[in-house]
Amino acid sequence: MAYKIIASQCTVCGACEFECPNAAISLKNDIYVINPSQCTQCEGHSDEPKCAVVCPVPDTCVPA
User: What confidence tens digit (pLDDT) does each residue in 51-63 have?
Assistant: First the structure.
Protein backbone atom coordinates (compact mmCIF):
# COMPACT_ATOMS: atom_id res chain seq x y z
CA MET A 1 0.00 0.00 0.00
CA ALA A 2 1.30 3.46 -0.89
CA TYR A 3 1.62 6.41 1.41
CA LYS A 4 -0.18 9.73 1.01
CA ILE A 5 0.36 13.27 2.25
CA ILE A 6 -2.42 14.94 4.21
CA ALA A 7 -2.62 18.21 2.26
CA SER A 8 -4.16 20.26 5.08
CA GLN A 9 -1.17 19.44 7.31
CA CYS A 10 1.61 19.78 4.73
CA THR A 11 3.85 22.82 5.27
CA VAL A 12 5.41 22.43 1.79
CA CYS A 13 8.89 22.24 3.32
CA GLY A 14 10.10 19.79 0.64
CA ALA A 15 11.97 17.47 3.01
CA CYS A 16 10.08 14.42 1.82
CA GLU A 17 10.66 14.99 -1.89
CA PHE A 18 14.43 14.70 -1.61
CA GLU A 19 14.35 11.69 0.72
CA CYS A 20 12.10 9.51 -1.44
CA PRO A 21 14.26 6.80 -3.07
CA ASN A 22 11.62 6.20 -5.76
CA ALA A 23 11.03 9.82 -6.78
CA ALA A 24 7.36 9.27 -5.97
CA ILE A 25 6.86 12.69 -4.34
CA SER A 26 6.37 15.86 -6.36
CA LEU A 27 4.97 19.36 -6.03
CA LYS A 28 1.54 19.75 -7.65
CA ASN A 29 -0.55 22.91 -7.32
CA ASP A 30 1.60 24.20 -4.43
CA ILE A 31 1.30 20.99 -2.38
CA TYR A 32 3.36 17.82 -2.26
CA VAL A 33 1.72 14.60 -3.43
CA ILE A 34 2.82 10.96 -3.58
CA ASN A 35 2.34 9.01 -6.79
CA PRO A 36 0.88 5.70 -5.52
CA SER A 37 2.18 3.75 -8.51
CA GLN A 38 5.76 4.71 -7.59
CA CYS A 39 5.52 4.48 -3.79
CA THR A 40 6.89 1.27 -2.29
CA GLN A 41 6.91 2.50 1.33
CA CYS A 42 10.71 2.52 0.92
CA GLU A 43 10.73 -1.28 0.97
CA GLY A 44 14.26 -2.44 0.26
CA HIS A 45 15.65 1.02 1.07
CA SER A 46 14.67 1.67 4.66
CA ASP A 47 12.88 0.09 7.61
CA GLU A 48 10.33 2.92 7.63
CA PRO A 49 8.94 5.17 4.88
CA LYS A 50 11.38 8.07 4.59
CA CYS A 51 8.64 10.64 4.03
CA ALA A 52 7.07 9.86 7.39
CA VAL A 53 10.43 9.90 9.15
CA VAL A 54 11.63 13.27 7.82
CA CYS A 55 8.31 15.13 7.86
CA PRO A 56 8.35 17.83 10.58
CA VAL A 57 4.57 17.54 11.08
CA PRO A 58 3.54 14.26 12.75
CA ASP A 59 1.03 12.07 10.90
CA THR A 60 1.23 14.02 7.64
CA CYS A 61 2.71 11.17 5.57
CA VAL A 62 0.46 8.22 6.28
CA PRO A 63 -0.62 4.92 4.69
CA ALA A 64 -3.14 5.54 1.94
Answer: 999 999 999 999 9
* Phi, psi angles (nearest 5°) of residue 56: -75, -10
pTM, two decimals, is 0.91
Three-class HEC string of the chain:
CCEEECCCCCCCCCHHHHHCCCCCEEEECCEEEECCCCCCCCCCCCCCCHHHHHCCCCCCEEEC
pLDDT tens digit string along 8-25? 999 999 999 999 999 999
